[in-house]
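In practice, a research group might receive sequence data for several interacting partners and want a quick structural hypothesis before committing to experiments. The following worked case mirrors that situation: the sequences arrive first, and a predicted assembly follows.
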Amino acid sequence: MPRKFSLTPYLFLAPALILIGVFVLYPIVAVVYYSFTDYDIVTPPVWVGLGNYERLFRDPIFWRALLHSFIYLLVTPTLIVLGILLAIVVNRRLRGINAFRALYYIPVISGSIAVGIAWRLMLDTNGLLNSLLISMGLLQKPVQWLAEPSLTLPIAMLLTIWMGLGYYMMIFLAGLQNIPDELYDAALIDGCNHFQKHWHVSLPGLRPQITFVAVISSLAALEVFNEVFILTGGLGGILNSGVTLVFYLWRQAFRLQHAGYASAIAMVLLVITLIFSIVNIRRLERGTEAE
Amino acid sequence: MMQLTHPVAAARSRAAHRKTFETIFWYVILIGIAVITAFPFVWVFFTSFKGPTDAIYSVSPQLLPQAPTLANYERVWNQLPVANFFLNSVIVATATVGLNLLITSLAAYPFAKMKFRGRDAIFYLLLATFIVPPQLAYIPGFVLAVNVFKYYDSLLALIFPSLATVFNIFLLRQAFKTVPNDLIDAGRIDGASELRIWWSILLPVVKPSLATAAIITFVNQWNDFFWPSLMLHTRSNMTLQVGLVALQGMFASDARGVAAGVVITVVPIILFFIVLQRQFVRGLTGAVKG
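A structural hypothesis for the assembly, expressed as tokens:
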């Protein structure tokens, strides 16, 4: 077939590429530049070389935020384990099972702001959790759940897990339904009990889903903001107990107008997400080779 | 006289008992989990109808309002432009979905069905942007909004940056790939332009994927908060999520009012989900395989 140069494909691509160029590619370049400047968004940026990075290095709150973001990654293995267990529970033919699956999915679509505020109301000193625990005799007097620094991060992580579980359940459920029944039958004939059956058949069969969930949920964990914002009322918790990388970026850029410094934080975030994604993709490639 | 049971029948009834027991066991588990996932919604729902005499905090806890009232909703409605919030959310989500699908499906066509220089390079570049944290783009995005596009504090600021999403290009490219080439060639022989082929041959065939992309985009826009909260400052311009946070600030000591606000925000999207449940599930499943 004779092939001549045609403009058509480029014209089809143009609107999307222009938009992505303006709103994704240009910002990456701009952030790299801003990170070497002192910039308050109002007046033009002033070149400061590595100044922001040096400051970052000596900023204890930045190190705390970094540590918190790494701690936050614990939601990923939790979501994988609970997601698989929940998928196994709902992967059976029972009357009304679709209604249950839908119920488990509702936190996912409700939006983290509304859900976070609902949690806040329940965890308030004058909220439901305290009335429950005191009624049951487990507490003597109300606890200020949201003002306790050591609880800020765990509560936010719990919220992330509670909100995301239904989504990951659906992904693992789809994976389970792709595993042929014969494999389970063979496992039973080989004398596997129910637990061994899932260990030897379900887990290997879910490998692509596990990798997918690991990538998606760890990126989401590194980029967490809404949960911390809502639970701490936009303040980041007492003694910065809930400050994560993105929360600190937000505070520096949009509360304190330190856009240059915030850009340096953004660069750190970018490097971490890049490393994470490369590691995860390598693992995915190794997984497919093994098959 | 003792009745003799046939051994097979006995075994069968034992198996049946076991089966019933198992079924009950699973329902108990399922209901237990449902309580965990649904309870906060149920509690907030009832709280939003509580009158001043119904306790939020009490030993022992009170779930149902004794004197149900709509006063909380009235208070929220009178102090905040809730109708505007709702309308703004609808406008942003629907405008984004409509324009986004046009632009991403246009881009997906050459990636799926045409050969041209730089196709793979461009495609992998787009895929790589997937990894970039969206919050990184918000710093320059803010500067652009204020200095270049001048759409700060308007709904355009929410629509424009969301019109081309790599995820949708990827999803629709996968869908277009499954369309037989014969169908496209037949169109070309009839003298149809590429634009015509895209519109009247490809798009109708991939309707299910379009529906999936539409739903995902709609929910993401509806629930988005970070960027909208940076852009919208005038009350009447806010979306539901941004408005809900404003409400939370205003009603700091009024749990019943905040609960009403949560219900107003959450009910539309839950109804949306219930109506389109089937498409939701298909969309999720497709996302991993893709």
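Before designing any experiment, note the following. Chain B has two domains: 7-69, 73-289. Residues 7-69 of chain B form one domain.
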